[in-house]
Write a sequence for this structure.
């Protein structure tokens, strides 16, 4: 029965994007926390834009399985309207709990009010929504992106002599921003600007979105390089954009990590390898392994227990030697 509802809902509302249902309905009926004690979670993912996102999806799918939670999973391919449709479909299916990672910060109040009216609790993972009404979700689990940006900027301040690659006393930084309007793009940019304001010789001379993708990072870096101004430092707001930019830098005959110092955020495997190889100089970690905590929060919410409204992820930073040491045991 559930399957029928799911197929009908996906045909009507989700035909425009990939819809992956990962649950099973072998019991033949809808499973709710209230009737037979089992839990169905609808999860609306951002997309598959980066190594971070792939690791995050894997963590959520695996930990749902481990926790015995029936997971309905959708990939919004980076589009807010797809995420809203997915959430509406989960409301129609009467899932027990909805979790999602909002593509952008604004524009969620209407659909979150619909979930609230239907009595379905919502948990935010990874990214925040910009809403004054905090009753629209039970908890927000994820990193402090402002702090991540500050750590990246602090590295430039602490390594100013090294970062001034042409030794002219001015440190020209170019920035590859994440998806426009997304919490990590807004907050990392803010944290970075805040930290570098401590040293007036450090200036962001160009800043543009690369949409958190490798291709985006490569293309925007090519245009930065073509501008002709000397670039001392690249701050890429995620590893993937940094990795794309490295290709552009090498194609321009420059040596990444030497001619242009590179700082990124995430610390996914490919980023850590590039750091270990000396092509990236510093990475601020952002953990995608949010699945186990998310399942735990969902169970607590459905058991009527109090949960913290904001649950912060713990994370560190890596320089070259630390990356080399951490790489063999890295989970993502
Ligand atoms: O840094 C980036 C991904 O929201 C923290 O999204 C996440 C960011 C992550 O695409 O790689």
């Amino acid at each position: 029965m559930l399957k029928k509802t799911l197929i009908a809902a996906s045909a009507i509302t989700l035909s425009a994007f990939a819809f992956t249902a990962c649950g099973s309905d072998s019991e033949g009926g809808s499973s709710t926390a209230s009737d037979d004690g089992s839990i169905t979670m609808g999860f609306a993912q951002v997309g598959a834009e980066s190594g971070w996102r792939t690791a995050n999806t894997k963590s959520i799918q695996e930990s749902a399985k481990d926790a015995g939670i029936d997971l309905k999973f959708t990939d919004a391919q980076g589009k807010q309207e797809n995420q809203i449709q997915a959430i509406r479909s989960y409301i129609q299916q009467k899932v027990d709990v909805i979790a999602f990672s909002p593509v952008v910060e604004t524009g969620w109040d209407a659909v979150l009010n619909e979930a609230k009216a239907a009595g379905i609790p919502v948990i935010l993972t990874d990214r925040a929504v910009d809403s004054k009404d905090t009753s629209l979700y039970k908890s927000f689990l994820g990193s402090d992106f402002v702090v991540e940006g500050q750590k990246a900027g602090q590295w430039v301040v602490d390594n100013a002599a090294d970062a001034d690659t042409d030794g002219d006393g001015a440190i020209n930084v170019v920035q590859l921003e994440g998806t426009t309007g997304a919490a990590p793009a807004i907050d990392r940019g803010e944290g970075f600007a805040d930290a570098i304001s401590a040293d007036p010789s450090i200036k962001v001379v160009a800043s543009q979105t690369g949409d958190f993708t490798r291709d985006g990072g490569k293309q925007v870096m090519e245009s930065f390089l073509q501008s002709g101004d000397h670039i001392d430092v690249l701050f890429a707001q995620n590893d993937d954009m940094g990795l794309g930019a490295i290709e552009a830098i090498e194609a321009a005959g420059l040596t990444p990590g030497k001619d242009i110092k590179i700082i990124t955020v995430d610390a996914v495997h490919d980023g850590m390898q590039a750091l270990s190889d000396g092509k990236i100089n510093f990475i601020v970690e952002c953990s995608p392994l949010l699945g186990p905590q998310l399942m735990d929060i969902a169970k607590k919410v459905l058991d009527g227990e109090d949960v913290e409204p904001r649950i912060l992820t713990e994370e560190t930073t890596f320089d070259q030697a630390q990356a080399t040491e951490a790489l063999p045991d890295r989970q993502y």
